[in-house]
Fold Guanine nucleotide-binding protein subunit beta-like protein.
Amino acid sequence: VVVGLQSGVLGIFTWDLWGDMRDRFVGHPRSVQAMAKYNEDVLVTGSSDGLLRVVQIHPNKLLGVVGDHDDFPVEALSFTFDKQCLVSCSHDNTVKIWDTSFFEEDGALQMEEAKSKKQRRRERQKEKKAESDSDDSSDEEEGEADEDGDEDDSDDDDE
């Protein structure tokens, strides 16, 4: 049994021995507000610092950060039935859905930052804009070269 403590520690107890904490995992600067079990050894925690952390219990290891709620405390976490998405809600008055399909690939846990669909869409839009801006600037450079006479492709010289 794993419990989140106000000190930011995850307390790990054996089911039959409630009096003795079997292990402690220190990895949160503030209180652990919410947890969602991914499998027997991995869970996601939500802290009052707004971060969603992926934690391995056996052995104790912080695997990474899934996302954040901009320093607002996380109130609740839940996985979808197929574990492909994690849903979080926070004091920032938002409910966010995080893509967790990368958690398991070929049976191994691979950690990288997950992003909400909205964040991915914004990044794609920025990439497209950057590409179009670079295309526009290269077109402008060609036009400037023609005006300066440096690169004149006209047939005026042949006459």
About this structure: The radius of gyration is 25 Å. Residues 105-109 have pLDDT under 50 and may be disordered. The first helix runs from residue 117 to 148.
